Amino acid sequence: DILRFYPIYINLKDMRMTFTNRQYGRRTIVEIPMKDLDSSIATLFKNHLLELLESSPDDMVVIDLENVRFLDSTCLGALLTAFRQTGSKRKVALAAPQTAVLEVLNAARITRVMAITRTLNEALCLLPEHWLADS
Amino acid sequence: DILRFYPIYINLKDMRMTFTNRQYGRRTIVEIPMKDLDSSIATLFKNHLLELLESSPDDMVVIDLENVRFLDSTCLGALLTAFRQTGSKRKVALAAPQTAVLEVLNAARITRVMAITRTLNEALCLLPEHWLADS
Amino acid sequence: MSHRVSLGIDSRVESVRFLRAAIRGLCDEAEVPASLISRVELCVAEAVCNAIEHAYARQTDRKIWVNWVRHDDTLAIRISDCGQSMATDLFAMARDIRLEVDPDDPCSLRGRGRGLALIHAFMTAVDYTSADGLNHLDMRLAIPQSPQSLPSCGEDADSPSSGTP
Amino acid sequence: MSHRVSLGIDSRVESVRFLRAAIRGLCDEAEVPASLISRVELCVAEAVCNAIEHAYARQTDRKIWVNWVRHDDTLAIRISDCGQSMATDLFAMARDIRLEVDPDDPCSLRGRGRGLALIHAFMTAVDYTSADGLNHLDMRLAIPQSPQSLPSCGEDADSPSSGTP
Ligand SMILES: Nc1ncnc2c1ncn2[C@@H]1O[C@H](COP(=O)(O)OP(=O)(O)O)[C@@H](O)[C@H]1O
Ligand SMILES: Nc1ncnc2c1ncn2[C@@H]1O[C@H](COP(=O)(O)OP(=O)(O)O)[C@@H](O)[C@H]1O
Fold first, then answer.
1. CA dihedral of D151, D153, D155, D157, whole degrees rounded to 10
2. Are D125 and B96 in contact (CB under 8 A)?
3. pLDDT for the residue numbered A98
4. Local structure of D71: helix, strand or coil
5. pLDDT score, position D56
6. What interhelical angle do C34-50 and A99-107 show, nearest 10?
7. Helices (H), B56-98
8. Is residue D5 within 8 angstroms of chain C, CB to CB?
9. Residue D153 — very low, low, confident or very high, per pLDDT cuts 50/70/90?
């Protein structure tokens, strides 16, 4: 396995935080260091996802939501536009969302276009045919 | 052991709560059902303690603070005046205070007149000579 | 008995997380079930972000007020600003905005335009009014009564539990 | 960067616990250490109860405002009322009021008169001012910087942890 990092530095909550990409075979895991995916970082979140989707167009993407306690409409929209701009060719999975985040994802019926898994490992074990996009 | 109850009904936090006395040998345990000993119940708290101290003047009193997360100056004062009005004859112990409550008790150096114990059981096992009042 | 707390922040997105934290604290103290607290938190954040972005066009030195009232069976929250009002028909339309994504409809994958729809989805009632230069978004959420808030000390006094510890 | 939230309640003792809950939420979000949060909570409650009891003589329909500001290294909280002002010398005297009980001094076992002394004991600095019909109690608390709030991502980028889960 080759480890690759695409850190984006942002000054948030008086400390620097960065989205990180971690390679796992043909999958890229996006790690989210902040507790809140809110409107103050929606643009950064979208740009990070777009850059990732463009730079390695064949990988699957797993977004690790385990530490995220809050997701608002702007970051939900960031996720969806990034997904849309790849022409729905990319398979995206959302791993380990907390209850509050899951409620927002469910309100948007997001499983129609992406997979949701209970754990990160489940996402990494998903077979291509179970990734909902394009299916 | 004889079980005696002196319930005082108060309408607090939209529900009825009551201080309860429980007899344990020659000790009376005062149980506090509310999380906050604040100014909205300081008078009730003082009256409950005074009534107890008058009705059974020879018992020791153990105030079970385990569930109390907040103590303000008015309830601290209620405790001290009730104690004072018995002529410092009564032995009082404060059992199992949480950190925030302990800080207030320590700021008043209350162990000069009452015992503080880590657990309720420790208070019940205290020998009379270790109860600080009158010592 | 009703309980009321009002809150205010400057119109900066960086302040919204503090407002959310205060709302969480208030709802928790008011015994709002945890599953509803996260909805309230989201809806307050969406409404406040709308005021910052649309009513104030991202000016950061304006004020936003949140009035939080806990009634016995409902939570009533009003978000107020003194910026640009929203057209009444725009607000009425928001009720019908589809939240759901549809793989065959790229428009359903849009980046914005889900805030009011989420508020409608999660709150029991939502209203928007403007008067005297002030705009108010009112949301109400029905709160199920918790069993422990029913009177119970009669029982306690009648059925003493076994006494010694 | 500083963060500010203002809060307001009616002058009723029953509302104070909600204010405390909001303050807890704010301080927690602002990464104030837990041991200091309970002190802040107490001091805000003491100051607000003083305003209710002394400035407003227990009238329940007046207003009390709390202005909460988190600076990098301090918390600044202002409690304001528009009632009866406290005499300046009374406030100055409070600094010397003894909190400690003394078994030989019945006066040290008094029921009241410990609120301001507790505020002085727990806060770094306290001040009281009146102007234009408003009274302000200002308290400041120094907050130790937590190590995790120092920049650290340079390290993260240089020393990747072993990759696969
Ligand atoms: N508080 C407000 N003041 C003025 N206009 C608003 C307000 N809230 C919403 N709007 C209008 O309604 C539209 C839909 O809002 P919303 O569903 O929250 O999505 P978004 O904010 O992402 O556009 C906004 O684009 C804006 O035109
Ligand atoms: N906000 C206030 N407005 C007017 N007077 C006040 C205020 N706070 C305190 N005081 C005065 O200072 C005295 C001491 O206050 P404090 O130490 O809090 O004790 P307590 O409120 O129990 O009397 C009060 O009795 C009152 O006379």
1. -160
2. no
3. 98
4. coil
5. 98
6. 60
7. 73-85
8. yes
9. very low
Using CB distances shorter than 6 Å, the residues near ligand 2 are: B 73; D 46, 50-51, 53-55, 84, 86, 90, 94, 112-117
- Nearest CA among C81, C77, C67 for reference residue C11: C81
Pairing type for strands A92-95 and A60-64 reads parallel
What does the radius of gyration of chain D's CA atoms come to, in whole angstroms?
20
Q: How far is ligand 1, taken at its centre, from the CA of residue B82, in Å?
A: 59
Rounding to the nearest 10 degrees, give the CA dihedral for residues A65, A70, A72, A76.
0
Q: Which residues of A touch D156 (CB under 8 A)?
A: 7, 18, 20
Cβ–Cβ below 8 Å for A109 and C100: yes
Higher pLDDT, A90 or C86: C86
- Here the ipTM equals 0.88
From the list D53, D111, D122, which residue is nearest B77 (CB)? Answer: D111
Q: Is C44 an 8 Å CB contact of chain A? A: no
Domain ranges of chain C: 3-162
- Chain B residues near residue D111 by CB distance under 8 angstroms: 46, 74, 77-78, 80-81
Residue nearest to atom 13 of ligand 1 (CA): C113
Confidence of residue D1 (pLDDT cuts 50, 70, 90): confident
Confidence of residue A88 (pLDDT cuts 50, 70, 90): low
Residue C48, ligand 1, Cβ within 6 A: no
| pLDDT of D32 over the 90 cut | yes
pLDDT tens per residue across span C82-119? 999 999 899 989 888 999 999 889 999 999 999 999 99
> How many whole angstroms separate alpha carbon B77 and alpha carbon B83?
10
Kindly report the length of chain A.
Answer: 135
> Closest Cα of chain C to A50: distance in Å?
13
Residues D33-46 have a mean pLDDT of 98
Distance from CA of C17 to the nearest CA of A (A): 8
In the block, tokens 């000054």 appear at: A11
Q: Could you tell me the pTM of the whole model?
A: 0.89
Chains touching D by CB (3 or more pairs below 8 Å): A, B, C
Q: What count of other Cβ atoms lies within 10 Å of the Cβ of residue C145? A: 11
Q: How far apart are alpha carbons C164 and A32 in whole angstroms? A: 52
Quick check: do A and B touch, 3+ CB pairs under 8 A? no
CATH 3.40.50.300 for the C3-162 domain, yes or no: no
Q: Give yes or no for residue D39 having a pLDDT over 80.
A: yes
